[in-house]
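Q: Given only this backbone (290 positions), what sequence would you predict?
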């Protein structure tokens, strides 16, 4: 009896030890997977940053060009799903995603899911690719785009009621209902248009420290040393992270949103004419002094 009980205890301890060992291995595997995922996310962030730096340098001479780095890199990376051979290699090189391989698409899927699932802020994202009916669309391309980018791929309809732009606008507004304007203007799609790539992002969040609306007043916003525009400006007394960079002559303020997951950074040149120089500084990570 004693021997049987001893053997049973040894067997139980062996089972518990194996169970603890298995749990430890699972935890290690999970940690390794999380670390690998974080490294890939950092690579994706670096790729988007590097691409936007190149784009900014190319587009800096064109006035009033405003774009979202996340949106434009994501949209163009999506189109690379349809590229083959040399075209695919060139697109990956330009987008700086060669080292990520095919994992870049699943990374964007996970990032989009994470952004869309936030509860402390509202983030709505619409992305669509529309092709001239003259060209065919491969089903596997449409499936990959829908799976990884939650995007619509379709032919645009030149005979649609209200114009070819209307179905596209309706789709984008269904994805980003917070928008109050139609992304595509009438008659912007012509019979010889080959492709339309559109992206919309709507963000709505509450400041962690709210501004008092009673203090908002109209003041001049200087666009250059010679011209300005009257705009409504918010005012308030609050404690925020603030930096004065005297070397690069910029002031930096951080305004976090509720939840502290998202932050609005304001980088303001000390001189009215310092905006162009500021753009050069922002795309060189070591230029802003600590």
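A: Predicted residues:
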């Amino acid at each position: 009896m004693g021997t049987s009980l001893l053997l049973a205890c040894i067997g139980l301890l062996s089972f518990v030890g194996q169970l603890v060992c298995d749990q430890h291995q699972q935890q290690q595997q999970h940690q390794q997977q999380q670390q690998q995922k974080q490294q890939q996310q950092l690579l994706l962030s670096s790729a988007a940053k590097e691409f936007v730096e190149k784009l900014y340098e190319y587009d800096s001479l064109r006035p009033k060009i405003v774009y979202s780095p996340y949106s434009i890199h994501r949209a163009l990376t999506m189109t690379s799903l349809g590229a083959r051979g040399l075209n695919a290699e060139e697109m990956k090189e330009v987008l700086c995603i060669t080292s990520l391989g095919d994992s870049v698409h699943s990374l964007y899927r996970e990032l989009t899911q994470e952004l869309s699932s936030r509860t402390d802020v509202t983030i709505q994202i619409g992305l669509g690719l529309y092709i001239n009916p003259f060209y065919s669309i491969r089903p596997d391309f449409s499936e990959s785009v829908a799976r990884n980018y939650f995007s619509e791929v379709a032919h645009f309809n030149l005979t649609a009621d209200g114009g070819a732009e209307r179905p596209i606008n309706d789709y984008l507004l269904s994805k980003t209902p917070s928008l109050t304007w139609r992304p595509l203007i009438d008659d912007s799609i012509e019979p010889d248009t080959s492709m339309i790539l559109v992206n919309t992002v709507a963000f709505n969040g509450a400041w962690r420290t709210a501004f008092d609306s009673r203090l908002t007043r109209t003041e001049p916003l200087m666009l250059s040393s010679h011209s300005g525009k009257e705009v409504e400006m918010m005012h308030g007394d609050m404690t925020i992270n603030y930096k004065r960079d005297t070397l690069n002559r910029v002031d930096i303020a951080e305004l976090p949103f509720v939840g502290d997951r998202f932050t609005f950074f304001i980088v303001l040149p000390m001189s009215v004419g310092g905006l162009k120089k500021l753009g050069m500084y922002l795309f060189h990570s070591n230029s802003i002094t600590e």
